[in-house]
């Protein structure tokens, strides 16, 4: 497929291609909010309105930095405590807690439960953990939406956590089997017999990798091939990464990343902001060598998201319950979809498939969307999705659609930075995307936001966020 995509997309009309000159770092961060447009609401007869009251996150930090000596439930607990402090919601009012995570700490496999207990929630409050790669907290939120819509609950806390500073490293399978046999041995002779079977290669550890089980290919390798298939140049990728970091720095300096809560790390300093935002220059970025396909690849450390530690949490309620408790919600959580494609050649194209589906469910068009918040795994992934979305050929040949959905305007797209610059704790990013959309809608005077993300396994998510009437 990659070869076919590359050959055909190169022949697409110029209008279907994303020019590097369109990747601008200009923004309207300092401008006052404009008057919200008057559009229809997406409320549906007989369907409960579900709202997001507020959300928080710990600062997202490069793995191996200030959070290095913590554990995942420490970060998750801090996010939950921060949410309680910000919203003043009584702990006993929360009906259910759902958390997302990807690389689990074996000691706290249900990290939602351990973090909830640590944050002081009642032991009578159920909590469970979900995993769906980079859209794990998206799944946590939509699980909460489902519980409310079905009448099971009125108040949900959803969130996610990832801790890449200390990932589980296992013994080899042969060594694990030997150790289990040794544990069952009853006599000294049996133990010595088991030990005598150990060979040097048994001692080689199994390291976790950001790779597909079904293809054994790393995500970065897939991003490199995808960028090649869609003719996304190294220059375009570096320019987009520079845009992300520049916009994130402007948003950070302007105090717009208001979902962040300070975290006093025991024995260390209080962390108050993300530490991966590092605007560079094109000259510096061009010096980096390819990270995955060497020597001719275009994906580098500078145009890829980095391994990140962090946690997020949001308070979701039925609108009726929120108003009864005196809250002014941030936004409605409206229609959402999950999609799934070929995990080899279309691993990172989730947003392309999710966007038209979620727009159709909501009865909207791309032009109706005021704010786009897409997960940035790699610059090449984002730019490939934009090209795929703007291609009639791709829509017709791979999506079974008559026409393209179109590419989002970049002046509405990730204007406060994205995962390339803010960081990407796998299990926590979805909540960040939703809160960024809600805050941008209020700041910019918009009504509808579209959140989308790709995920390992060739999966993806799309959701419509509607600003709550001001």
The helix fraction, in percent, is 25-40%
Please give the largest β-sheet.
10 strands, mixed
The SS-based structural class is alpha+beta
Described by the principal axes of the CA atoms, the overall outline is globular
User: How do the helices and strands follow one another from N- to C-terminus?
Assistant: HEEHEHEHEHHHHEEHEHEHEHHHHEE
Provide the low-confidence segments as ranges. Answer: 7-21
Q: What gyration radius follows from the Cα positions, in whole Å?
A: 23 Å
- Would you count the extended β strands for me? 12
Mean pLDDT: 92
Beta-strand residue percentage = 15-25%
Distance between the termini: 48 Å
Contiguous helical run count: 15
Describe the protein.
By secondary structure, the chain is α+β, with helices and mostly antiparallel strands. The protein has 15 helices and 12 strands. The protein has helices spanning 2-9, 72-87, 111-118, 136-149, 173-184, 188-196, 219-229, 234-253, 282-285, 319-324, 350-362, 379-389, 392-398, 419-422, 429-444; strands at 50-57, 61-62, 96-100, 127-130, 155-162, 263-264, 270-271, 308-318, 331-340, 371-374, 448-455, 459-467. The strands form 2 sheets. Strands 1, 2, 3, 4, 5, 8, 9, 10, 11 and 12 form a 10-stranded mixed beta sheet that branches. Helix 2 packs across helix 3 (111-118). Mean pLDDT is 92; it is low at 7-21.
